[in-house]
Design goal:
Number of domains: 1
CATH topology: Four Helix Bundle (Hemerythrin (Met), subunit A)
Number of strands: 0
Oligomer: single chain
CATH class: Mainly Alpha
Order of helices and strands: HHHHHHHHH
Structural class: mainly alpha
CATH architecture: Up-down Bundle
Strand content: under 5%
Radius of gyration: 17 Å
Shape: globular
Number of helices: 9
Length: 210
Amino acid sequence: MPEHTTMNTVIHAAFRRDLSRFEDALATFPADSRARADQLAVAWDNFTTQLHHHHEDEETIFFPALAGAGAEPGLIGALEGEHEAMQEALAAADALMAAFVAAPTRANAEAAHAGLARLRTVLVTHLDHEERDLEPIAHAYRDTEAWKAAQKAVRKAHPENLGTFLAWLQDGADPETMAKLRSEIPAPVVFVLSRVRGRHYRREIAPTWA
């Protein structure tokens, strides 16, 4: 995990964390446990929602802003291509997870685990690429009015998800990640939104990983 320079790496840390959690949960799944399968289904729905939102926001808001800041068109094109590959891997993993939830057998848990491993390869390769080549541009650009406008647009893009998003980011986050989150969003705002509007995450999803 690179040093946190923007909010983007905070979000990436949560994706990496959840991938590991799902892989561990499927590798140790107690065969035919309906209760555990249902828990994982709710957590998986949140993971896919956060991933879709993140990449949609990048394509519609952040990538255009960074292109205007001097990011090479070839880099943006390559990252968008990686998004397409990630969507394909996610769709395949999603189908395997649906089959596992419908029939939580040991064999279906193993198949879902394999699908998650393939998704990890594609997604982490993309996250690494973004952090290596795009983060320096984003960090250099972060104090400009255009970047602040992009951040504001993202905060308005999914208002119904904001509390869940903040609660999800904090679940199991290390001290460095928490420090960066609070430097980007005032600590009282993080606390109130994650406690009040993040109740669904805290009640229905966080216990999956307790």
